[in-house]
Amino acid sequence: MKRSKKAALVLMAPAATLLLAGCGEQQQEVHVFHNAEECAAFYHPPAECQAEFERASVLHTQVAPRYQDQFECEADFGAGQCETAPERHQSGSFFMPMMMGYMAGQMMNRGNLAGGQAQQLQQSTANNRSAVPTQPLYKSRDDRSTFRTAGNQAVASQPGVARVRPSAVQPQRAQLVRRGGFGEQAAVRQQAARQQANRQRSYGS
Amino acid sequence: MKRVNSTPRPGWQAYAESLGFKFHTIDGEPYWDESAYYQFSLRQIEQDLEDVTEELHAMALDLVPDILADEQKLDQLAIPADYRDALAESWQRGDPHLYGRMDLVYDGSGPAKLLELNYDTPTSLYETGFFQWVWLEDQLMRGELPAGADQFNSLQDKLEQAFANLTLPQPFHFTSVRESIEDKGTVDYLLDIATQSGVDSRYIALEDIGSLDGQYYDLQGEPITGLFKLYPWEFMLEEAFAEQVKTSQTLWLEPLWKLLLSNKGILPLLWQKHPGHPNLLESHFDSGKALDKGWLRKPLFSREGANIELVTADGKRLSEPGPYQDAPFIRQRLQPLPSFDGNYTLIGSWVVGDSAAGIGIREDNSLITKDSSRFLPHIILD
């Protein structure tokens, strides 16, 4: 016999599509500040404000978006708003935006709270930590009022209390890798083929 | 060898789609065409195609060290000077190769003639290895084909063995241009076979490949240690991430040395080494002067019939436009494709590893086979 004994497919014949929807996720209350002093001014214990700020600062060096050079970074975050990142690449340092604020998942108020709010707080403390990790926030060059996460998720336009979906603000380690360096010739040839009214369907032969 | 009219299976289009064959019809024109098939004798297949394919393949591999040892040949093939060392290393290290397809002119008698080697990014793989096979089994079951009809098509078996036997780094990635449905179909097929062979196989769009400090990365930030790419080497070496080819710890399929064999310049070099070989057509590097009758001109790097120009024996000029006018050209003596009921027929003969693995047939209304040419199934029946 000159042909294959079998020719099965295990992946290509598609199964029923599963829809994974993110709806139904509850928003959670968070606290957003420029710095620890502002946090304290919003009636929170200064030591806790400082501790959360430091927690965010540590995360900042891990999650802030990375750029190959200062110019690329400032194009997104504005002149003088970038600093060198801890990592180096072949031809120099990576750059990252400066931290412009932080978001705390939960905050105690100064003094003892009365009634339901205090109970709620105890409950959430009892459930260990908040679903929203304390993390650094940034501001883009063209929108200086909005606080954004390292993943470019807008969370608040002023200090104080905000509401977020926890899944949208989970910190991710910064991506150091450049992408998009392959595929240009396909685009060039596609363009040339289009001008000749001659389509280019495949890059095989 | 003959062309036999045949009744298409009712509803085959929906069935094709359910099996992942999304490009069976292109711009409203049939691509997969089962309104006819080609019939061969076993002798035609074994002597005229299978043996010839393995012989031509061995002759091509045999040329690689000759080319690597000769700067003038590397110049003639327009191999970028910057990448010659990396290319030579990929050959000397014995980087493995998976597959290739050679295009042959054959009409059932006389020696098949080699038109070109598609040894870097050959396509029509799924159509040949899978859908053509399914068609045969289906038509046998329906009694539409005589019992005992066979097919020269061990492509999927051989690919599965190859993936099982090559020791590939894992996870092993497969990539293609994001917008090409056809290329994604081919890559999905290979990924499927590799998975069946036990290889941890993953897809990444070509445009998503990342680069850092001389290494390529996937979307999870893990280094890409093995990559099948359905994208030509000559394109990759002109792009922003080319440089990292020299440093990246990546096993490539096809390997970088395939840049030599997918190059049309291999045709004059084969002719120089084996002048008058019955399966070769006389070929030369192009001097740029006008074509004589009975000759054709094609770029060193071209795909799917693009940028081919030919003059028939009686002086008729035919040309196909395309986006590959920037490379040097070769000229080749014209061996017109045979015509069956007014259709011009080309045979694509597959090689997996170093074994002949089956054929796929393309038909066109013109002497130049293009990406729009129809794909027809075949049978072996004595």
TrEMBL record, chain A:
The entry's keywords: Signal
InterPro entries with a match to the protein in the record: Biofilm_formation_YgiB
Region (Disordered): 114-173
Biased composition (Polar residues): 124-133, 147-156
Signal sequence residues: 1-21
UniProt-recorded name of the protein: DUF1190 domain-containing protein
Species of the source: Alkalimonas mucilaginosa
From TrEMBL, chain B:
Signal peptide: none
The keyword Acetylation is annotated on this UniProt entry: no
Protein name listed in UniProt: Glutathionylspermidine synthase family protein
UniProt xrefs under InterPro entries: GSPS_pre-ATP-grasp-like_dom (IPR005494), PreATP-grasp_dom_sf (IPR016185)
Glutathionylspermidine synthase pre-ATP-grasp-like domain ranges (all copies): 12-380
UniProt keyword Nucleotide-binding, yes or no: yes
Pfam families linked: GSP_synth
Keywords: ATP-binding, Ligase, Magnesium, Metal-binding, Nucleotide-binding
